[in-house]
Every structure is written in structure tokens, then in C-alpha cells.
Amino acid sequence: MGDQVKDKDSGSGVSTAKATRKGRGNSSRLSSKHQVTIPVDVMREAGFKVGDELVFSVEDKKITIAKKRIDLLEWIASLNGLYDGYDFAAERADAWPD
């Protein structure tokens, strides 16, 4: 039945309204190990998936959490030995002029 709940007024009818589960919400606590659990509804809304690398930033005492972006040139440079003689610094300088 998933997130559907039975409608008590109509007998055996099934409502399509989402059920609110105990413990779900948009808040969390900081653990003694400095860990925070992202509530599942917030995680889904943000598009985060298990295994995603996240980046944290602080500005005016507000924390922003975002998926880590992959730098294509860093990824290419990490392909060890695939491109012999590849100069990452020179390639980056050409790709991103000052």
C-alpha cells in the first residue's frame, strides 16, 4: 500500500494523500560525532542519492549543501597513464584564460 492510507469515512476506499510518518520532518540533530542525518524528504527534494559526494559552504552563518561537481579536466588527469605526456596545468591554463 506504500504511502496510501485507508479512508475511514468511506469504508474500504483508499486515499491518495501521503501519510505523515512519525519521525519524518525537516529537522535533524547534530550527533556527538558531529554527524547530521538529512531527512529523507529533504534529500529527495534536493535530488541527493546514496553515495553522492556533498560540498558544504558557510556564508553569513548559513550552511549550504550541494552535490560535488566533477571537474572534467581533473577527471581526465586522474586517468593515470592513459594520456602519456598530458600536461594538466598547461591544458587548464588554455581552457581557463585569466
Features:
98 residues; alpha+beta; Pemi-like Protein 1, Chain: D; two-stranded antiparallel ribbon; 3 helices; 16% strand; elongated
Explained architecture:
Helices cover 21% and strands 16% of the residues. It has 98 residues and is α+β, with helices and mostly antiparallel strands. It folds into 2 domains: 23-67, Pemi-like Protein 1, Chain: D (Ribbon), CATH 2.10.260; 70-98, no CATH class. The chain has a two-stranded antiparallel ribbon with strand order 1-2. Strands 3-4 form a two-stranded antiparallel ribbon. The radius of gyration is 23 Å and the shape is elongated.
Describe this structure in a few short sentences.
The chain is an alpha+beta fold and 98 residues long. It has helices spanning 40-46, 72-77, 88-95; strands spanning 5-6, 14-15, 54-59, 62-67.
CATH T-level fold name of the largest domain: Pemi-like Protein 1, Chain: D
Give me the strand/helix succession: EEHEEHH
Level-1 CATH class name of the largest domain: Mainly Beta
Taking all Cα atoms into account, the compactness measure Rg is 23 Å
Q: Uncertain spans, ≥5 residues at pLDDT below 50? A: none
Largest sheet strand order: 1-2
Mean pLDDT: 77
**Quaternary assembly:** single chain
Proportion of helical residues: 10-25%
Biggest sheet features: 2 strands, antiparallel
Strand content: 15-25%
Question: What is the annotated CATH architecture of the largest domain?
Answer: Ribbon
Shape: elongated
Number of strands: 4
